[in-house]
């Protein structure tokens, strides 16, 4: 039987892509889920529920601290505790620094970075009381290296790797760990938009654009699967990972080994 059975996780941005895979991966271990995010939420919730756990949904906009506070309070009320926090919600926008729209900068920093501070800020007191917790920040290879035209995203992801280290250090003598996962290319709606833009720019097919995109950075030439990232998250939540603290763990087909 899984040692995570009966615990509760919040997975931000769990209506799609990596967050949905994380929620399903944890639910398969018997973890109850507070889902969050926009879009096709009913389909996502049904998929998580099918794993046989309790699922609820909160519509917090992760760019709004007051809504994040409510997400934490409602989850504690509904499930009694927050044991696992997966900070996953994120957006992307690409442009050179001089052309980068100011509102896009602000919203990427708010959603991809500040939200992880606020969720941790509000969830840590409960975790400390129980002396157990797992905080997993979904960073990116862009938390470790840069790419042109991704100023806000790279700044936010480097920031979240820093936040991960500080959170891990402050709790190093407790049962609470904090780690970051740094995926390379994963074929989710967030990346499909970049594939579409490339296909249009280069007048090539969707498949050609996909292959060109992944091969440019990722030596394996293969996308990372969301389920592989979920399996890493499950490991980081387990007892064998209790001394993994403050890591920025890449799963990137060799991208950052170059
Ligand atoms: P996605 O677009 O499939 O999912 C993003 C999720 O975040 C969705 O559920 C969306 O509704 C939610 N979201 C967006 N804005 C929100 C807001 N203001 N409030 C609440 N929820 C919001 O994208 P994905 O590729 O699954 O990305 C998930 C995370 O993984 C992001 O942090 C992203 O930066 C990171 N990541 C993705 C890749 C990749 O190649 N796809 C690589 C590295 C890191």
How does the major sheet shape up? Answer: 7 strands, parallel
By secondary-structure content and strand pairing, the structural class works out as alpha/beta
User: What is the total tally of β strands?
Assistant: 7
Please list the strands of the largest sheet in the order they lie side by side: 3-2-1-4-5-6-7
CATH C-level class of the largest domain is Alpha Beta
What does the radius of gyration come to?
18 Å
Compounds present? Answer: nicotinamide-adenine-dinucleotide
Number of helices: 8
Explain how this protein is built.
With 258 residues, this protein is α/β, with parallel strands linked by helices. It has 2 domains: 8-184 and 225-250, Rossmann fold (3-Layer(aba) Sandwich); 187-223, no CATH class. Helices cover 47% and strands 14% of the residues. The protein has 8 helices and 7 strands. It has a 7-stranded parallel β-sheet with strand order 3-2-1-4-5-6-7, with helices on both faces. Strand 5, helix 5 and strand 6 form a beta-alpha-beta unit. It is globular, with a radius of gyration of 18 Å. The model has no long low-confidence stretch (mean pLDDT 97). Residues 12-13, 15-19, 36-39, 61-63, 88-91, 111-112, 138, 140, 183, 185-186, 188-191 line the site of nicotinamide-adenine-dinucleotide. Nicotinamide-adenine-dinucleotide binds next to helix 1, helix 4 and helix 6.
């Amino acid at each position: 039987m899984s040692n995570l059975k009966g615990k509760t996780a919040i997975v931000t941005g769990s209506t799609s892509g990596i967050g949905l895979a994380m929620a399903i991966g944890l639910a398969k271990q018997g973890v109850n889920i507070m889902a969050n995010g926009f879009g096709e939420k009913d389909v996502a919730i049904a998929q998580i529920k099918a794993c046989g756990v309790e699922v609820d949904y909160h519509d917090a906009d992760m760019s709004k601290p007051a809504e994040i506070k409510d997400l934490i309070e409602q989850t504690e009320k509904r499930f009694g505790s927050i044991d696992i926090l997966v900070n996953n919600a994120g957006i992307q926008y690409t442009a050179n620094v001089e052309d980068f729209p100011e509102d896009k900068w602000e919203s990427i920093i708010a959603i991809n970075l500040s939200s992880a501070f606020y969720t941790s800020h509000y969830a840590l007191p409960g975790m400390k009381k129980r002396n157990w917790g797992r905080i997993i920040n979904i960073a990116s290879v862009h938390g470790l290296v840069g790419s042109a035209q991704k100023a806000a995203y790279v700044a936010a992801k480097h920031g979240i790797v820093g936040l991960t280290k500080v959170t891990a250090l402050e709790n190093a003598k407790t049962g609470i760990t904090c780690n970051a996962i740094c995926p390379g290319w994963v074929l989710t709606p967030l990346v499909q938009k970049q594939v579409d833009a490339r296909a249009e720019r280069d007048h090539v097919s969707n498949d050609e654009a996909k292959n060109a995109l992944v091969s440019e950075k990722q030596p394996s030439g293969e996308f990372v699967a969301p389920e592989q990232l979920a399996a890493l998250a499950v490991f980081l939540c387990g007892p064998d990972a209790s001394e993994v603290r403050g890591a920025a763990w890449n799963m990137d087909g060799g991208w950052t080994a170059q």
